[in-house]
């Protein structure tokens, strides 16, 4: 029989025990490393989610700057979501199988990023729609205000014209009452011949074409101020058309000549005063017609 040294056997057994202990420690380290890798990957995924969410919140804050209150509320909700997502990450870490490969983890991460991108796009579209609706509402209110201002302006202009017309009519009635003529021993009854005198006054101006205030005052035995008032009244009433120049002369302009001047201005667009004066001098016939005045 082969006999072995007890010391040798004891040494071999001790060596085997140490080897077994070393293998066990190595296996434990391997398992711990795998758990650490999974934990780190899941933490990175959670951090990536939080980072993407913060970027989305920053983008929403830039787009909807005037909705600070809503953004603050969304930030609070996002912070709550962040804490929830951390706990959710821990739950998913618990529910995940023992081993998660890199490809599987990459697919999960890509899927989550696509989901976050869709949510960000939907929220951005919602913000754009809200901003567009607010702009449309402001435009509508501004247009309504402008229309109301235009209506008020038209009403004020209408009242002003009516008031001017009323005053002109009152002045015209006063002029009719105060018009007296004494020409070559002819006494005129105001109540009976006012219309004829006005007609003669207008016809005299139309035939003379250019007449001074003093000439009219002497011809009809009126004061110069009364002549000026009478001319203004006739111009406002439409019985005469023309202008009073700076020399104190009235220039009669026919309706056809006035229309031609208006057409000239419309065709030329912007017209200087000199051009308008030159054209008016060429257009308006300054030759006086034979003037006679008869007393009825």
From TrEMBL:
Gene3D superfamilies: Winged helix-like DNA-binding domain superfamily/Winged helix DNA-binding domain (1.10.10.10). The chain crosses the membrane at residues 6-30. It is found in: Endoplasmic reticulum membrane. Pfam families: DDRGK. The keyword NADP does not apply. It comes from the Eukaryota. Its main location: endoplasmic reticulum. PANTHER family: DDRGK DOMAIN-CONTAINING PROTEIN 1 (PTHR48176). This is DDRGK domain-containing protein 1. It comes from Trichinella papuae. The lineage of its organism: Eukaryota, Metazoa, Ecdysozoa, Nematoda, Enoplea.
């Amino acid at each position: 029989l082969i006999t072995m040294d007890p010391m040798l056997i004891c040494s071999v057994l001790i060596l085997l025990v140490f080897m077994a202990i070393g293998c066990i420690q190595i296996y434990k380290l391997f398992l711990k490393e795998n758990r650490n890798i999974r934990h780190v990957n899941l933490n990175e995924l959670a951090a990536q989610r939080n980072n993407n969410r913060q970027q989305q919140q920053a983008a929403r804050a830039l787009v909807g700057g005037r909705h600070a209150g809503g953004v603050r509320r969304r930030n609070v909700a996002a912070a709550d979501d962040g804490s929830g997502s951390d706990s959710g990450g821990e739950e998913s870490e618990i529910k995940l199988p023992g081993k998660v490969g890199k490809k599987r983890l990459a697919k999960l991460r890509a899927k989550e990023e696509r989901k976050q991108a869709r949510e960000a796009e939907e929220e951005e579209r919602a913000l754009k729609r809200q901003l567009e609706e607010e702009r449309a509402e402001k435009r509508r209110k501004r247009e309504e205000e402008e229309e109301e201002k235009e209506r008020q302006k038209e009403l004020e202009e209408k009242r002003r014209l009516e008031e001017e017309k009323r005053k002109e009519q009152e002045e015209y009635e006063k002029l009719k009452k105060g018009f007296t003529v004494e020409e070559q021993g002819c006494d005129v009854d105001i109540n009976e011949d006012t219309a004829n005198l006005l007609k003669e006054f207008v016809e005299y101006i139309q035939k003379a074409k250019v007449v001074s205030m003093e000439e009219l005052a002497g011809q009809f035995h009126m004061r110069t101020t009364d002549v000026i008032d009478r001319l203004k009244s006739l111009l406002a009433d439409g019985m005469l058309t023309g202008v009073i120049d700076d020399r104190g002369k009235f220039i009669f302009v026919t309706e056809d000549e006035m229309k031609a001047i208006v057409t000239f201005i419309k065709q030329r667009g912007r017209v200087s005063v000199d051009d308008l004066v030159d054209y008016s001098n060429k257009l308006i016939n300054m030759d006086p017609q034979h003037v006679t005045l008869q007393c009825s």
